[in-house]
Amino acid sequence: MFVSIYTQAQSSTCANASPLCASEELVYENTHDGSAAESGPNYGCLGTQPNPGWFYLQIGASGSVELEISQSSTPDGAPDSDVDFIIWGPFSDLNNVCDNLTTNNIIDCSFSIDPIEDVDIPNAIAGEYYILLITNYAGDFGYISVKQTNLADPNAGTTNCDIVTGNTYYQCEDDGNEIAEFDLDTIMLDVVGGDASLNPTAHLTIEDAENNQNPLASPFTNTANPTVLYIRQDNPMGGFLITEIQLIVADIPEVVSHTLFKCDTNGDLSEEFNLETALPFMVGDTNGLNISFHASQAEAETNSNAFTTLTNYMVSTQTTIVYVRVQDPISGCYNVQPLTLELSTIPSVQNTNLTTCVDVGETEASFDLTSAESAISNVAGVTYTYYATQADANAGNTNTIANPTDYVSGNATVYVVVTDGACSAIAELEL
Predict the structure, then answer these.
(1) Which run of H or E residues covers position 347?
(2) Same domain for 394 and 368?
(3) What pTM does this model have?
(4) CA distances from 258 to 116, 280, 318, 324, 350 (A)
(5) Alpha helices in 303-402, H assignment, sequence order
(6) What is the dihedral of CA 382, 387, 392, 396, to 10 degrees?
(7) Is 227 found in the same domain as 146?
(8) What is the tens place of the pLDDT at every residue in 350-406?
(9) Alpha carbon of 71 to those of 55, 114, 139, 398: distances in Å?
(10) Is 1 part of a structural domain of the chain?
(11) For position 340, what pLDDT does the model report?
């Protein structure tokens, strides 16, 4: 992609033609110094070419492109000053294009006395370039406007606005200090489309870029976030081009590891997991993020072989680890964290009882229910929850016995839910 951005809105020579995006209206101060366009190009219908402004545009989507050029004495005023134009093309690239502005390449031209001109580029093809010359025939100070008028037509072509919007390059970090190193060599090569012969250099200011002084070394450490740099390169049409780029240090998405449990009810080590249920615990707000699941960390890091089945992912071992990749699609920054899928087995339990003595006439006593745990189950790592009713135990709700170490009761049955991961069993504890 050929990218260039200028601080001025127009250029007085073809070699330094400014990029044009027609989908957004361009209004610029005209040239009014009495200069004339350079010799060499065939200017077609233009009897004279005073006060020139040179532009180039690239077609984004194929189709006809219709432009309106107008000139007025005030920025938002009614058109009132004679403006003229000529446009050449199409060209496959910009190399030596200024030497090929011939009669055969003229697409449209007008030398009328009107303050409004209509430019027609019929049947434009995506990727093609066109050279546009606008002249201020009136010669007075004023403002020239250029805009596309047929954007509402579903068959209309468009101009590629990437050639004027520049590039943003991101570096990812997780320490929050917004400082990072940028590989300027790689960035500059990207700006010039991989053509190192264009001799790109990076500069902190537009003045340094224009004067070709104080080039920056690579790697470059930013001191502000974002940081704007200016990339100077040789212009295939002659002279040089300057591209404004932005460097941004972006945060890596916050992701934490997690474990999902499921009960292996049949004891065959074969169960389905809904992987998406882990996301609220691992990521929280997933809005605007690209999330994928992978069998290995290496595949997650390279974003390859992402799972296509998430809601019924089958496992066949007691412990399975998959890897979740969470990526910000704008910055490209990503984080990979493991998701453990754990199959639990139903714990073995047995009913038992607790006995205590009371004074004659007493009907209640204090029981330490936890003292019966070793008799209820010998499975390590399980948890015990105590209920006064079987209905509450079956429901697994929050109506638990608040203080199982000092439970005052008479003769009764307590229901103990023994939990191992996602599996549980109920034992009866007779008091």
Answers:
(1) none
(2) yes
(3) 0.57
(4) 65, 10, 16, 10, 32
(5) 373-376, 390-395
(6) -20
(7) no
(8) 999 999 888 877 889 999 999 999 999 999 999 999 999 999 999 999 999 999 999
(9) 16, 9, 11, 77
(10) no
(11) 97
- Structure letter (DSSP) for residue 400: B
pLDDT tens sequence across 92-102: 888 789 989 99
Is 229 within a domain? yes
Across all residues in the chain, what is the average pLDDT?
90
CA separation for the pair 244, 232 (Å, rounded): 9
Q: Tokens for 384, please give them.
A: 């015990």
User: Cα separation of 304 and 293, whole Å?
Assistant: 10
Containing domain of residue 321, as a range? 258-344
Do 58 and 146 lie in a common domain? Answer: yes
Q: DSSP assignment of 62-115, as one string?
A: SEEEEEEEEEESSTTSPP-S--EEEEEEEESS-TTGGGG--GGGEEEEE--S-S
Give the pair of three-digit tokens for residue 174.
């997780």
Which tokens in the block code for residue 204?
């902190």
Q: Based on the domain organization, do 59 and 179 belong to the same domain?
A: no
Site of tokens 């307590």: 414
The neighbouring-strand residues paired with 196 are none
Q: Other C-beta atoms within 10 Å of 196: how many? A: 10
* Residue labelled with tokens 């809904």: 274
> CB burial class (10 A; 0-12, 13-18, 19+) of residue 195?
middle
